[in-house]
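Chapter review: from sequence to fold.
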Amino acid sequence: MPNTTKRPVEMTNDELAEYVATEEFAAKPAGKRQDASPLRAIASARATVDAAELTLTDAVAAARAAGFSWTDVAMMLGVTRQAARQRFVEKIDARMLGLRWNREDD
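The token string follows.
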């Protein structure tokens, strides 16, 4: 069972999905609780987005390591050079150092 003393924003995707499936969640007084499958679908989609973000960060890091400019990267993302750099430079640095990027810092 997940640590329910955490606020939901502090829970991992797995913890959220597990919590929504518990009797503790179902017993919470928020009107009549219904099937929690839509909430589990949100948690699953969030996990998919998180995985895609890591894949995109790795792709941007590979492009930069291969010598492509921020302008090149930005063109592929459909954003400005500055926007691409601001979004990815710290994530790439963290990944290169073997650190996991904390999405709350994003």
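Two observations follow directly from the output. Residues 101-106 have pLDDT under 50 and may be disordered. The two ends are 28 Å apart (CA to CA).
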